[in-house]
């Protein structure tokens, strides 16, 4: 699903970033691994924070959608019960995933579809490329899909000489700019209108030369561009929001109608879907089709819901392939603590309420999955050491809004413990400092007598305080005093005061 | 009632005015306060940073120290911090279970069940919202994330504040937005933390309040540090400090250290 949310009005005169590499339009480029790229989170965040325009864009966009979401969620009297139901269905799916996947395969096959299994990105890309090549075409249209972003399908197809055209407006903007999405739902949230006009003028061959940055004009230009693609494409590639095991039905929900064009016009449809996107029965969709649009776009219902079951002679695509993607998911499934990350229905509500995401934007996370869900999903999928579990204050806003009740803060804490364990095997200088500090603090904080002595230590800092505050501390205290004062430590700790008082009695 | 005080490590060492105020307040309300000196810290920092092994001895010490509440020696434990209460309630059992200490994990649950954040203790356990306080100042309230979402204290702190004679409570824009402290987050992601702090400081200044209050000194240390750096003159004060203030023994926002008694 996508909306126009990603096109904030421009305040300052800023087009594509002036320090962008030549030949690009200020995007981050297309990385080797879409799940893990770029600088460390703190460094990437620092760079993003320096971009005032980006911060304003993000602040406005996330505030707007937060307010909208809160309003439409407030209208539903049984919202909490719906969340419980969504969570319970997902837990059930994960508990019997192999069985349900086989049921799905059976039902898709029975209705004339073909099911393929892909263990990783390379396998999935290979399967799709072979299917497209068999159709003897060099251009395919695409419905916005996180799964194909995750495996870098477009780049893999390009290597085979196949052009994959994104048809979601925001996704098209990202693709034309050679950029990466910075939001699950609004991939071009980091762009403003003027940047979009520049991108169209430079990269979209049939853009009108007198194009302005009025949203309607931009949309019309994209529409004319895409219409030609829809009408000529023989193959479409989509993701799936849901797959119903019992009936073999696939579902995509969206706002622009481009998805429906892709799903109905071409002769062949290839759907790439993460294996966790299942629901057991058709009735279960009732729950998710209420939870998803309100959580994601703040709408009561999404404008387009497309469902298809195998093939229907004489109507729609006559060939249907379903690629079931693992790419690390069974590994996540095996982890009891982190498993519920697979409940995610990619609504992006957690991104929009996250105070960290709001400040730094999506690219800082260095993954196609940014924000709170990205911070728990990405490290689990890659299994690599990561600083993403620390990219949160544990404020809990994400858990509060998640329509399927993923306890993101608790999973973050679990993953931090995993990071500490990973750091133990090959520690760098920073890891050693943290470990030593935590050990020392543990020693001092595990005993009242030891703590009594430790608690008196800050008192020594009174020597450097002026007018009741400390403005500068040496490293690592400088990390604090760089942007905040520290109040002067007290002359007497609480426990010393208490002891004195007891003595006086 | 006999109420044991868990002062929290940060307030004990850095902001003794908060636990002192709790003592003043509860004694004024006719209760007996006990301070078990073996206490040190609840283990939150270690757990939240991922150092579970290092958290174990800290958590064990907390549970051992406050175990008497489970046997009825005290009626309740009070903590002047939402996040420490959250850690006691939602993390300690998990840490001890993970360390293979099921009996201590059960003891942790028993302690947690009788442990309350200050506004919870006052409103839910002691049944008072008007504590007889007097504090003739303009105050704004920041609902800290853990009080708000981990504990769900709701509007209890505001109800307590509204009952304070002379106090003018002014609403804070984007009140529920995190201030950016997040414990070690403020060091590990110092720049992002500072960006969040900037917005919080701007919103606090916008209220025109003299005093910013909250139920947690860790967040107040962070926001207060920002308020001070920006030269705003707005004073951070713990909820308990305001509630401890009376006509007879007023607490002035400018006197940081001494809660008169
Ligand atoms: S984690 Fe929850 S809130 Fe975030 S995108 Fe997934 S379903 Fe939505």
TrEMBL record, chain A:
Q: Which Pfam families match?
A: Fer4_8, LUD_dom, LutB_C
Gene Ontology MF annotations: 4 iron, 4 sulfur cluster binding
Q: Where is the composition biased (Basic and acidic residues)?
A: 482-505
The parts of the chain that form a coiled coil are 44-71
Domain 4Fe-4S ferredoxin-type, first and last residues per copy: 341-406
Q: Where is the LUD domain?
A: 102-324
Q: List residues of the Lactate utilization protein B C-terminal domain.
A: 426-502
- Alphabetical list of Gene3D superfamilies matching this protein: Alpha-helical ferredoxin, NagB/RpiA/CoA transferase-like
Keyword Iron appears in the UniProt entry: yes
Keywords of the record: 4Fe-4S, Coiled coil, Electron transport, Iron, Iron-sulfur, Metal-binding, Repeat, Transport
Q: Where is this region: Disordered?
A: 1-27, 481-505
A biological process from GO: lactate metabolic process
What is the protein's name according to its record? L-lactate dehydrogenase complex protein LldF
Organism in which the protein naturally occurs: Promicromonospora sukumoe
UniProtKB/TrEMBL annotation, chain B:
MF (Gene Ontology): oxidoreductase activity
**Single GO cellular component term:** cytosol
Q: Which InterPro entries match?
A: Cys_rich_dom
Could you tell me which residue ranges the Cysteine-rich domain spans?
6-88, 139-223
Protein name in UniProt = L-lactate dehydrogenase complex protein LldE
Q: Which species is the source of this protein?
A: Promicromonospora sukumoe
